[in-house]
Design a protein that fits this description.
Layout lengths: L2 E7 L13 H7 L2 H7 L3 E7 L22 H20 L3 E6 L5 H9 L5 E6 L20 H5 L5 H4 L13 E6 L4 H10 L2 E4 H7 L1 H11 L5 E7 L21 H12 L4 E7 L10 H13 L6
Parallel strand pairs: 1-2, 1-3, 3-8, 4-5, 4-7, 5-6, 7-8
């Protein structure tokens, strides 16, 4: 039995497409809390986090002097989400953050890293999300959270929750990537970050990749899972904003998550980038709930 706090993070500030702010409620309406309780867990839905701004998205998506889109709003939201996650961990509960765009991981992981001295991160995503203001082609901060957590880029984002980098390069495993910017490729190679592309997944099998990833992170005192639904193939997950063909299939992902659920190292998780406005009859949110079930121990027998 896991004591789970569901924390909604309905931010759309990290990218320009409307609709991702509706993701947390779409996942809730698809039975998230009820289904996790049916697995025997102690589940509490803490509702949605909001910052000091009256909205969770901007239509104009203004760039600052560094070319970062909606910087003030992302920073503000990250601080508020970090506080919520911090409170959950102080209460010795598992923070399960549902988004919302992937910039939310700046806030969530910053809080988790405050409670663990050697935190590992399993980042399952079609993208590296390891850009900075210097390397990002777009200025969208949802493509930068991992870079920020490694201490790259704007200091105000890097210092969310507590000063300095929150993660070590050797404590990160990227899985399912197939759309890396040139700067990200160079950064990953320079710092020797463990990275399993979709070619690796196809060659080895996702279950083997996850097993290898857990072995790589075995010296960590906790593991945070950050799962972007765009890691799955668009045929599986149409309701997301940055679709990339050639992704993971649901059956393979469920097997991998079942393996992951058996480790006692998993201490927190994000499930991000569900966008109901781009979806087909809420298909993506329904499958997101299935992903959540397997994160927390569901199996086919």
């Amino acid at each position: 039995m896991v004591k789970i706090d569901i924390i909604g993070a309905p931010t759309a500030f990290g990218q320009p497409k409307l609709g991702v702010s509706l993701g947390p409620d779409a996942v809730r309406f698809s039975g998230l809390e009820e289904n996790l309780k049916s697995l025997g867990h102690d589940v509490s839905d803490l509702g949605n986090v909001y910052g000091n701004y009256k909205t969770v998205y901007r239509k104009d998506n203004v760039k600052d002097g560094q070319g970062l889109i909606n910087f003030d709003e992302v920073r503000d939201f990250s601080e508020h989400l970090s506080q919520a996650v911090d409170n959950t961990l102080k209460n010795k509960r598992f923070p399960f953050v549902i988004g919302g765009d992937h910039s939310l991981s700046i806030g969530s992981v910053s809080a988790v890293s405050h409670h663990y001295s050697n935190l590992g991160v399993l980042w399952i995503d079609a993208h590296g999300d390891i850009n900075s203001s210097d390397t990002s082609p777009s200025g969208n901060i949802h493509g930068m959270p991992l870079g920020v957590l490694l201490g790259e880029g704007n200091e105000a984002l890097v210092n969310i929750n507590h000063k300095g980098a929150k993660l070590k390069h050797e404590n990160i495993v990227l899985v399912g990537v197939r759309d890396l910017d040139a700067g990200e490729k160079a950064y990953i190679k320079k710092h020797g970050i463990k990275c399993y592309t979709m070619s690796d997944v196809a060659r080895l099998g996702l279950d083997t990749v996850i097993t290898k990833a857990l072995k790589h992170l075995q010296e960590c005192d906790g593991i945070h899972l950050s799962l972007d639904v765009d890691s799955l193939d668009p045929m599986e997950m149409p309701g997301t904003g940055t679709k990339v063909d050639g992704g993971i299939f649901l059956s393979d992902m469920l097997l991998a998550l079942n393996i992951l659920s058996k480790t006692e190292q998993l201490v927190s998780a994000d499930l991000v980038e569900v966008n109901p406005l781009l979806d087909n009859r809420n298909k993506t949110a329904v499958k997101a709930v299935t992903l959540a079930e397997y994160i927390f121990g569901q199996s086919q027998i």
